[in-house]
Amino acid sequence: MATEEDLEKFRKEGHVAFVVGYTGETGKELVKALSATKPFTRVVLIGRRKSSVTDKLGEGFEGFIKVDHDYVMRTAELARASDCKRFLHVSSTGSDKNSCLLYPQTKGQVEEELKDLQFEHLSIFRPGFLICDREESRIGEKIAKCLCMPCFCCCGKYSAVSTEILAHAMVRRACHPNGKVETIDNKTIHYIAE
């Protein structure tokens, strides 16, 4: 686990970070965590034009693939071409390139393609259900949260994680990577953030 001494050493090395998706719930928490700890000399925020995720839902499968696969991979390819050493990606529990369902299949495909880019360090975060106070209303997510809340209470850190905890784990891994390629499950996200 990274210590305060490790963080200070990292700061002195003068690293620059970029955050893609900084207007999303996890992105907002990541920017807060980076602002609080200040591990980087500069943080570049990259976002799309103002666009509601619900607008993307209207685009169906193609819109989902464009956002969750194409944008992610193009960003990663540009980062790699710019000699980015460490790349952190938020995927999802259950990601599987061989799944018959579009969501886990797409997430799994992205994970495999990221590995092929050969970053010096690649951290893939697989959070469970993300707990946050969304500004936008997602009725399906609200229903799922109500139905699953008893499970979250019983399984705790194994099934859900707050975007704040996820962001803290990401900052720690950005400053102190663990191996060349690392897939970080929900339980480990909690452990890293502690």
Automatic annotation (TrEMBL):
<dbReference type="GO" id="GO:0005737">
    <property type="term" value="C:cytoplasm"/>
</dbReference>
<protein>
    <submittedName>
        <fullName>Oxidoreductase HTATIP2-like isoform X2</fullName>
    </submittedName>
</protein>
<dbReference type="GO" id="GO:0051170">
    <property type="term" value="P:import into nucleus"/>
</dbReference>
<dbReference type="InterPro" id="IPR036291">
    <property type="entry name" value="NAD(P)-bd_dom_sf"/>
</dbReference>
